[in-house]
Amino acid sequence: MEQLLPALRWIERQTRTRTNHAQMLVGLEEGLYLRDFVCNTSSVRVLEIGTFTGYSLACLADGVRSVSGSSARSGDVFVDAVEINRELDYIIEEGLQRAGVSDLARVVFGDAVEILSSQTSRQQAGIAEEYDLVFIDADKRQYPEYYELVLPLVKRGGYILADNVTWYGRTSSHTDSKSSGINAFNLKVESDTRVESRLVDIRDGLCVIRRK
Ligand SMILES: C[S@@+](CC[C@H](N)C(=O)[O-])C[C@H]1O[C@@H](n2cnc3c(N)ncnc32)[C@H](O)[C@@H]1O
Predict the structure, then answer these.
(1) For residue 53, which atom of ligand 1 is closest to its CA?
(2) Is the pLDDT of residue 36 over 80?
(3) pLDDT at 69
């Protein structure tokens, strides 16, 4: 935590300076919520879909470090992340170093749907077959696909957290592809008997899904 806060400030500054999309970051309140969620659920194997400049990744990895304590270097403790755009990899890399978690977190660059869709492609990318927690924060149009692809990878009793599920209040009134993607995702989760879910009112809505 000591290293995390200055690292997050650095990532945010770099993101503002080098991109026009700083609004995509989860921000401090949600970032620390993610970190605490990892700690409270004792999650040590975490997967992130959609990393951008690594802000939420640093928060998740710091949570894993805190849970795992002295066993942090064991092979069972890790955060994998999938990001389609490798242009900002230097920010991710330095941000993780500054947060002191680069030994725990690993980013795979590529399309999450392609990577997750078969055991062979998962193996090639080094994606595990079981996670304690998955954080979804990539292309809103693909949320229903990410959900179906990651649910079998979440251990029973484990969690999926999905960001932006209220989509700035647009899901019911807008028919554009992103609103429709989030809407379809929300309906799918609500009616899915394999899981239980609740909405956390933080930033743009975080859906907390527990696999039964
Ligand atoms: C909202 S940003 C992620 C922000 C990040 N979670 C944070 O708070 O620090 C969404 C990211 O998802 C990535 N993305 C979009 N489609 C993707 C896909 N099919 N596979 C992997 N990443 C994808 C985008 O390139 C973008 O960096």
Answers:
(1) 9
(2) yes
(3) 80
Query: Which CATH code for domain 4-211?
Result: 3.40.50.150
Indicate which atom in ligand 1 lies nearest the CA of residue 54. Answer: 9
Kindly report the protein residue whose alpha carbon is nearest to atom 19 of ligand 1. 111
Q: Is the distance from CB of 111 to CB of 49 less than 8 angstroms?
A: no
Break the chain into its structural domains and give their ranges: 4-211
Mean pLDDT computed over 43-72: 92
Write out residues with Cβ below 6 Å of ligand 1. 24-26, 50-52, 55-56, 82-85, 111-113, 137-139, 142
Q: Is residue 20's pLDDT more than 60?
A: yes
Q: Taking a C-beta distance cutoff of 8 angstroms, is the pair 182, 140 a contact?
A: yes
User: Using 50, 70 and 90 to split pLDDT, how confident is the model at 30?
Assistant: very high
For residue 7, the CA-to-ligand 1 centroid distance in Å is 19
Going by C-beta distance under 8 Å and a sequence separation of 6 or more, which residues neighbour residue 128?
45, 47, 78, 80, 122, 153
What is the per-residue pLDDT for 1? 80
The residues that bridge with 197 in the sheet, in sequence order, are 209
The answer to whether residues 57 and 26 touch, using CB atoms and an 8 Å cutoff, is no
d(CA 143, CA 136): 8
Question: Mean pLDDT throughout 96-110?
Answer: 96
Mutate to test the pocket of ligand 1, among 16, 21, 57, 85 (most ligand atoms within 8 A of CB): 85
